[in-house]
Amino acid sequence: MAFGLFKSGMGKPRRFNHQYIYVNERKEKLDKMEEDVKREMGILPEKEFSPEDIRGKFVEGTTHLKRRKESGRKPVHLGIFIILLLGLCYIWHVLRTGSWTL
Asked: Shortest CA distance to 44 belongs to which of 34, 54, 55?
């Protein structure tokens, strides 16, 4: 007897299919064509992409990185992490053996 949660013949769930309601594809296509023609004629400047622009978009998209950037804090360096780890290992050794020497 198979229960509802444990049936072996359960199918895959439906895929997510989001269709926009308020999108005018024709208008967007015409706007893009108009922009391309203006760029070819020299009315609008050429699009310039730089790695800094892309990196900035990722930082803007995440709230924790944005907050860290605004506060000016730096992440904990690897050297500090290693020193803390060695200190904890030494404290563990002292508690385990009762000796202050290595």
From this structure: 34
Domain count, the chain: 1
Domain with 49, as residue range(s), is 25-97
Asked if residues 60 and 66 have their Cβ atoms less than 8 Å apart, the reply is yes
**What is the tens place of the pLDDT at every residue in 31-72?**
999 998 998 998 888 877 666 667 667 766 677 777 777 777
Tokens for 66, please give them.
């944005």
Helix-, strand-, coil-residue percentages of the chain, each rounded to 5: 55, 0, 45
31, burial (CB in 10 Å: exposed 0-12, middle 13-18, buried 19+): exposed
